Amino acid sequence: MKRILYLITLIIVLTACSSSKNYLERSDEDKALVDAVKKLNKSASDENATAALPILYNNIKLAHLAKIKSYNNSRDISRWDKIVAEFNALQTAHDAIINSTAAFKLVSPENYGTQLLEAKQGAAEEYYSSGLTYLAKTGRDNAKKAYTQFKKADKFIPGFKDAQAKTNEAYEKAIVNVVINPVQDNSFFFNSSWGNYGYNYSNEYFQQTLIRDLDNSNSSNRYAARFYTEWEARRDNVKPDWVIDLTLRNMNIPPAGSYRYNQNRSARIQVGTDTAGRPQYRTVTATLYVTRQSFDANADMEVRIKELESNKNISYRSFRESYRWEEENATYSGDSRALNSYDWQLINSNGYNQPRKEDVLNELYRKIYPQVLNNIRFSVDW
Description:
The chain is α/β, with parallel strands linked by helices. The chain contains 12 helices and 7 strands. The protein has helices spanning 2-25, 29-42, 47-72, 79-98, 101-104, 113-135, 140-156, 163-174, 197-214, 230-235, 341-348, 357-380; strands at 176-180, 184-185, 225-228, 242-252, 257-273, 279-307, 312-334. Strands 1, 2, 3, 4, 5, 6 and 7 form a 7-stranded mixed beta sheet that branches. Helix 4 (79-98) packs antiparallel against helix 6, helix 6 (113-135) packs antiparallel against helix 7 (140-156) and helix 7 runs antiparallel to helix 8. The longest helix has 26 residues, at 47-72. It starts with a helix and ends with a helix. The relative contact order is 0.08.
């Protein structure tokens, strides 16, 4: 009996040591400390968490302070983000312990609230100063950098100086005035007998609709750009910074091609009953003669976004889309009772409803448009 009790005691001790060891062997000691504190909140006498907590806190403190010392030796402005993150981790450990009666009995954590605030203050000062430096320079890229730096300053210390006003100033300075030209159709399609219908449609769909969808007042997104037609820019006396040229190329709407094929149908139908009243069946057959008419249309939309002052491309992309149309009708021979409902739809169809060329262009533009819109958004976005 004594031997059994000894074994049970040994197992309990070994299990406790193993659990404590598990806390200490975790790669994320910050998380392990929080878990140990949670365990103590549930069971203040838990031997595993009790043994691990002081060691974990000491390790965390030494590790984070060492990183802070290392970052302080750097002159890179991004060091502030890292320093603040390390002090945040130290303060999180402090708060976890100080708010736990059981944990606070085991460890007296150091409060890094003052150091954390000082680090945030230092970060805000340096980011704000950096923002002023970029703001004093010319060019959209510098204005964008200034915007980012002022945002950082205000993030570390909300309401820091006039960082919010400077952020707005940098944003306004970064705004580009963009003229979107109507679609130019350089494809054979426009020069064919169809005439100008497609050009008028694309002009309205791409130029006017793009300007409407990119209007900041109509969107939850905020782009550092204002968009105009050429006429609107002249009317408002706006000097454009960028111009967007849209060119339709390689438009191809081929004549519909025909393809014929046959399908055999059969069905088992009741033709009567025998003398005993049992149903009698017979298999009937028919042949369906199907004619399919179809075509695959495609087009390319070339989008060139150019900076007028440098005459350099901001973006140059080409988007290709296709549209497939097909319809079938049919005739048959044989017994009509062998045909199914879908067969009758084909037989009773009113010929081929081939779309007009302008309808095909509509479908192609509908597919291309989102790609063009997203490309412009990406180009003007931060």
